[in-house]
Amino acid sequence: MERKITYFEKPGPTNTDETLRLAADEAAARGIRRIILASTRGDTARRASARFAGTGVTLVVVPHQFGFTEEQYFSPELVSELEQQGHRVYFGTMLFHTDGLYGSGAAEAMAMVLRTVCQGMKVCVEIVLMACDAGLVARGEEVIAVTGTRRGADTAVVAIAASSQQLQDLHITEILCKPLQTRSWARGTSPYDAIDRQRQARDSS
Question: Distance between CA 109 and CA 97 in Å, rounded?
Answer without folding.
Answer: 10
